[in-house]
Amino acid sequence: MRTPRKGESSFDASDTSADVENLDLYEASAKYYDIWHEDYQEDVRFYLKLADRTGGPILEGMSGTGRILLPFARAGYEITGVDRSTAMMDNCATKLYLEDVDVQQRVDIIQGDIRDIKLDRKFKLAFIPYNSFLHLLEVKDQETALTNIRDHLEDGGLFAFVVFSPRLDRPEHLLRHRGTRLTKQGEIISWFESQIFDQPNQRTMVTYFYDISRQDGTLRRVTSVFTLRYLFHREALELLDRCGFDVQEVYGDYEGGPYKATSELMMFVARKKG
User: Nearest to residue 193, comparing CAs of 181, 179, 176, 205?
Assistant: First the structure.
Protein backbone atom coordinates (compact mmCIF):
# COMPACT_ATOMS: atom_id res chain seq x y z
CA MET A 1 0.00 0.00 0.00
CA ARG A 2 1.28 3.49 -0.80
CA THR A 3 -0.26 6.46 1.00
CA PRO A 4 -1.13 9.62 -0.97
CA ARG A 5 1.71 11.53 -2.46
CA LYS A 6 0.89 14.66 -2.78
CA GLY A 7 -37.72 17.06 -7.29
CA GLU A 8 -38.87 20.55 -6.60
CA SER A 9 -38.73 21.52 -2.96
CA SER A 10 -39.91 24.25 -0.64
CA PHE A 11 -36.35 24.61 0.63
CA ASP A 12 -35.17 28.23 0.50
CA ALA A 13 -31.58 28.54 -0.65
CA SER A 14 -31.48 32.20 0.35
CA ASP A 15 -32.36 31.48 3.98
CA THR A 16 -29.64 32.93 6.23
CA SER A 17 -30.95 31.75 9.58
CA ALA A 18 -28.35 28.98 9.65
CA ASP A 19 -24.58 29.06 9.83
CA VAL A 20 -23.39 28.81 6.23
CA GLU A 21 -20.18 27.10 5.19
CA ASN A 22 -18.98 27.21 1.60
CA LEU A 23 -16.77 24.29 0.57
CA ASP A 24 -15.26 23.37 -2.75
CA LEU A 25 -16.56 20.21 -4.36
CA TYR A 26 -13.75 17.99 -3.11
CA GLU A 27 -13.98 19.12 0.51
CA ALA A 28 -17.76 18.66 0.50
CA SER A 29 -17.57 15.31 -1.23
CA ALA A 30 -14.90 14.03 1.14
CA LYS A 31 -17.13 14.97 4.07
CA TYR A 32 -20.54 13.86 2.82
CA TYR A 33 -20.17 11.62 -0.23
CA ASP A 34 -19.94 8.35 1.67
CA ILE A 35 -22.93 9.21 3.84
CA TRP A 36 -25.12 9.28 0.74
CA HIS A 37 -23.55 6.44 -1.19
CA GLU A 38 -22.43 3.94 1.45
CA ASP A 39 -25.22 1.52 0.51
CA TYR A 40 -25.07 2.14 -3.24
CA GLN A 41 -23.70 -0.93 -5.02
CA GLU A 42 -25.07 -0.87 -8.58
CA ASP A 43 -21.99 0.77 -10.07
CA VAL A 44 -19.62 -1.39 -8.02
CA ARG A 45 -21.27 -4.54 -9.39
CA PHE A 46 -21.06 -3.18 -12.95
CA TYR A 47 -17.32 -2.50 -12.76
CA LEU A 48 -16.65 -5.80 -11.01
CA LYS A 49 -18.32 -7.63 -13.91
CA LEU A 50 -15.91 -5.89 -16.27
CA ALA A 51 -13.02 -6.93 -14.04
CA ASP A 52 -14.22 -10.52 -14.20
CA ARG A 53 -13.74 -10.29 -17.98
CA THR A 54 -10.30 -8.69 -17.91
CA GLY A 55 -8.64 -9.62 -14.64
CA GLY A 56 -6.25 -7.22 -12.96
CA PRO A 57 -4.40 -5.03 -12.39
CA ILE A 58 -6.99 -2.25 -12.51
CA LEU A 59 -6.77 1.54 -12.64
CA GLU A 60 -9.50 3.80 -11.24
CA GLY A 61 -9.16 7.39 -12.36
CA MET A 62 -10.66 10.08 -10.12
CA SER A 63 -11.06 7.46 -7.42
CA GLY A 64 -12.23 9.84 -4.68
CA THR A 65 -12.87 8.39 -1.25
CA GLY A 66 -12.32 4.79 -2.34
CA ARG A 67 -15.98 3.77 -2.31
CA ILE A 68 -15.48 1.66 -5.46
CA LEU A 69 -11.77 0.98 -5.08
CA LEU A 70 -11.97 -0.85 -1.75
CA PRO A 71 -14.56 -3.45 -2.83
CA PHE A 72 -12.23 -4.36 -5.71
CA ALA A 73 -9.37 -5.00 -3.31
CA ARG A 74 -11.64 -7.03 -1.04
CA ALA A 75 -12.61 -9.11 -4.09
CA GLY A 76 -8.95 -9.96 -4.67
CA TYR A 77 -8.01 -7.46 -7.41
CA GLU A 78 -4.87 -5.34 -7.46
CA ILE A 79 -6.09 -1.79 -8.01
CA THR A 80 -4.51 1.65 -8.28
CA GLY A 81 -6.55 4.75 -7.52
CA VAL A 82 -5.58 8.21 -8.79
CA ASP A 83 -7.15 11.45 -7.55
CA ARG A 84 -5.84 15.00 -7.33
CA SER A 85 -7.84 16.01 -4.24
CA THR A 86 -5.96 15.94 -0.94
CA ALA A 87 -9.22 15.74 1.02
CA MET A 88 -10.40 12.76 -1.03
CA MET A 89 -7.06 10.98 -0.74
CA ASP A 90 -6.93 11.51 3.01
CA ASN A 91 -10.42 10.07 3.39
CA CYS A 92 -9.53 7.06 1.25
CA ALA A 93 -6.29 6.45 3.15
CA THR A 94 -8.11 6.57 6.49
CA LYS A 95 -10.58 3.93 5.34
CA LEU A 96 -7.81 1.81 3.85
CA TYR A 97 -5.93 1.67 7.15
CA LEU A 98 -8.99 0.00 8.68
CA GLU A 99 -8.89 -2.85 6.16
CA ASP A 100 -7.12 -6.18 6.62
CA VAL A 101 -3.47 -6.26 5.63
CA ASP A 102 -4.10 -8.44 2.58
CA VAL A 103 -6.60 -5.86 1.28
CA GLN A 104 -4.17 -3.01 1.92
CA GLN A 105 -1.46 -4.79 -0.04
CA ARG A 106 -3.62 -4.89 -3.16
CA VAL A 107 -4.18 -1.12 -3.16
CA ASP A 108 -2.02 1.71 -4.40
CA ILE A 109 -3.47 5.23 -3.99
CA ILE A 110 -1.64 8.06 -5.68
CA GLN A 111 -2.40 11.75 -5.60
CA GLY A 112 -2.16 13.10 -9.11
CA ASP A 113 -3.97 14.31 -12.20
CA ILE A 114 -5.29 11.65 -14.57
CA ARG A 115 -4.36 13.92 -17.49
CA ASP A 116 -0.62 13.70 -16.95
CA ILE A 117 0.26 11.20 -14.25
CA LYS A 118 2.85 8.61 -15.28
CA LEU A 119 2.72 5.21 -13.59
CA ASP A 120 5.25 2.41 -13.80
CA ARG A 121 2.82 -0.31 -14.81
CA LYS A 122 0.07 -1.06 -17.30
CA PHE A 123 -3.46 -2.19 -16.56
CA LYS A 124 -6.00 -4.60 -18.04
CA LEU A 125 -8.95 -2.43 -17.05
CA ALA A 126 -9.34 1.28 -16.34
CA PHE A 127 -12.48 3.18 -15.44
CA ILE A 128 -13.67 6.60 -14.29
CA PRO A 129 -16.82 6.52 -12.13
CA TYR A 130 -20.06 8.41 -12.61
CA ASN A 131 -19.74 11.95 -14.00
CA SER A 132 -16.17 12.43 -12.75
CA PHE A 133 -14.94 12.69 -16.35
CA LEU A 134 -17.21 15.71 -16.86
CA HIS A 135 -15.13 17.79 -14.45
CA LEU A 136 -12.69 18.16 -17.34
CA LEU A 137 -14.13 21.34 -18.81
CA GLU A 138 -12.21 21.59 -22.07
CA VAL A 139 -12.20 19.13 -24.96
CA LYS A 140 -8.40 19.28 -24.99
CA ASP A 141 -8.32 18.16 -21.34
CA GLN A 142 -10.73 15.31 -22.07
CA GLU A 143 -8.56 14.17 -24.97
CA THR A 144 -5.40 14.41 -22.88
CA ALA A 145 -6.92 12.33 -20.09
CA LEU A 146 -8.20 9.63 -22.44
CA THR A 147 -4.89 9.43 -24.28
CA ASN A 148 -3.01 9.08 -21.01
CA ILE A 149 -5.38 6.33 -19.84
CA ARG A 150 -4.95 4.52 -23.16
CA ASP A 151 -1.19 4.64 -22.74
CA HIS A 152 -1.54 2.98 -19.32
CA LEU A 153 -3.58 0.07 -20.68
CA GLU A 154 -2.16 -3.23 -21.82
CA ASP A 155 -2.77 -4.14 -25.45
CA GLY A 156 -6.47 -4.90 -25.79
CA GLY A 157 -7.24 -3.46 -22.35
CA LEU A 158 -10.70 -2.10 -21.54
CA PHE A 159 -11.72 1.39 -20.45
CA ALA A 160 -15.16 2.35 -19.11
CA PHE A 161 -16.75 5.58 -18.00
CA VAL A 162 -20.26 6.62 -17.05
CA VAL A 163 -21.88 10.04 -17.44
CA PHE A 164 -25.39 11.42 -17.28
CA SER A 165 -27.34 11.64 -20.52
CA PRO A 166 -28.13 15.34 -21.03
CA ARG A 167 -31.83 16.15 -21.02
CA LEU A 168 -31.92 19.85 -21.81
CA ASP A 169 -35.71 20.03 -21.66
CA ARG A 170 -35.65 19.75 -17.87
CA PRO A 171 -36.67 22.86 -15.91
CA GLU A 172 -33.83 24.83 -14.39
CA HIS A 173 -33.38 26.55 -11.03
CA LEU A 174 -35.63 24.06 -9.25
CA LEU A 175 -34.26 22.51 -6.09
CA ARG A 176 -34.42 18.75 -5.88
CA HIS A 177 -34.46 17.08 -2.49
CA ARG A 178 -31.98 14.22 -2.88
CA GLY A 179 -32.74 12.69 0.51
CA THR A 180 -32.22 12.87 4.26
CA ARG A 181 -29.81 10.84 6.38
CA LEU A 182 -29.15 10.35 10.08
CA THR A 183 -25.42 10.18 10.80
CA LYS A 184 -23.67 8.13 13.47
CA GLN A 185 -23.09 11.40 15.33
CA GLY A 186 -26.84 11.98 15.54
CA GLU A 187 -26.94 14.77 12.95
CA ILE A 188 -29.76 14.94 10.43
CA ILE A 189 -28.49 15.91 6.97
CA SER A 190 -30.81 16.91 4.12
CA TRP A 191 -29.28 17.18 0.65
CA PHE A 192 -30.66 19.50 -2.03
CA GLU A 193 -29.44 20.08 -5.57
CA SER A 194 -30.03 22.78 -8.16
CA GLN A 195 -28.79 22.83 -11.75
CA ILE A 196 -28.40 25.52 -14.42
CA PHE A 197 -27.53 24.72 -18.04
CA ASP A 198 -25.27 26.88 -20.19
CA GLN A 199 -26.18 25.33 -23.53
CA PRO A 200 -23.94 27.45 -25.82
CA ASN A 201 -20.88 26.31 -23.84
CA GLN A 202 -22.23 22.82 -23.17
CA ARG A 203 -21.87 23.18 -19.42
CA THR A 204 -24.03 22.85 -16.36
CA MET A 205 -23.47 24.54 -13.02
CA VAL A 206 -24.54 22.39 -10.09
CA THR A 207 -25.08 23.58 -6.53
CA TYR A 208 -25.33 21.21 -3.59
CA PHE A 209 -26.91 22.36 -0.34
CA TYR A 210 -26.48 20.26 2.79
CA ASP A 211 -28.72 21.27 5.71
CA ILE A 212 -27.29 19.79 8.90
CA SER A 213 -29.42 19.74 12.05
CA ARG A 214 -27.52 19.09 15.26
CA GLN A 215 -28.81 17.58 18.47
CA ASP A 216 -28.47 20.94 20.22
CA GLY A 217 -31.03 22.41 17.81
CA THR A 218 -28.58 24.44 15.73
CA LEU A 219 -28.63 24.34 11.95
CA ARG A 220 -25.63 24.52 9.64
CA ARG A 221 -25.75 24.80 5.88
CA VAL A 222 -22.91 23.62 3.66
CA THR A 223 -22.92 24.66 0.00
CA SER A 224 -20.77 23.44 -2.84
CA VAL A 225 -20.83 24.76 -6.41
CA PHE A 226 -19.16 23.07 -9.38
CA THR A 227 -19.33 22.98 -13.17
CA LEU A 228 -19.54 20.00 -15.52
CA ARG A 229 -19.05 19.88 -19.27
CA TYR A 230 -21.61 17.37 -20.46
CA LEU A 231 -21.23 15.09 -23.46
CA PHE A 232 -23.70 13.98 -26.09
CA HIS A 233 -23.82 10.37 -27.24
CA ARG A 234 -22.27 10.82 -30.69
CA GLU A 235 -19.70 13.27 -29.35
CA ALA A 236 -18.51 10.73 -26.78
CA LEU A 237 -18.19 8.02 -29.44
CA GLU A 238 -16.10 10.32 -31.63
CA LEU A 239 -13.98 11.41 -28.68
CA LEU A 240 -13.12 7.82 -27.76
CA ASP A 241 -12.29 7.01 -31.37
CA ARG A 242 -9.95 10.00 -31.69
CA CYS A 243 -8.14 8.97 -28.53
CA GLY A 244 -7.39 5.43 -29.62
CA PHE A 245 -10.37 3.37 -28.45
CA ASP A 246 -12.83 1.07 -30.18
CA VAL A 247 -16.21 1.32 -28.48
CA GLN A 248 -17.46 -2.17 -27.63
CA GLU A 249 -20.67 -1.50 -25.73
CA VAL A 250 -22.90 1.42 -24.75
CA TYR A 251 -25.39 0.83 -21.94
CA GLY A 252 -28.19 2.93 -20.52
CA ASP A 253 -28.13 1.52 -16.99
CA TYR A 254 -25.93 -0.45 -14.61
CA GLU A 255 -27.87 -3.64 -15.33
CA GLY A 256 -26.59 -3.66 -18.90
CA GLY A 257 -29.74 -2.38 -20.59
CA PRO A 258 -29.24 -0.81 -24.04
CA TYR A 259 -28.70 2.93 -24.31
CA LYS A 260 -31.73 4.83 -25.62
CA ALA A 261 -32.42 8.52 -26.13
CA THR A 262 -34.49 8.48 -22.94
CA SER A 263 -31.81 6.78 -20.81
CA GLU A 264 -30.64 8.60 -17.71
CA LEU A 265 -27.07 7.31 -18.12
CA MET A 266 -24.55 6.74 -20.89
CA MET A 267 -22.11 3.94 -20.08
CA PHE A 268 -19.26 3.41 -22.52
CA VAL A 269 -17.02 0.35 -22.61
CA ALA A 270 -14.14 0.68 -25.07
CA ARG A 271 -11.08 -1.38 -26.01
CA LYS A 272 -7.63 0.03 -26.62
CA LYS A 273 -6.88 0.01 -30.32
CA GLY A 274 -3.93 -2.06 -31.22
Answer: 176
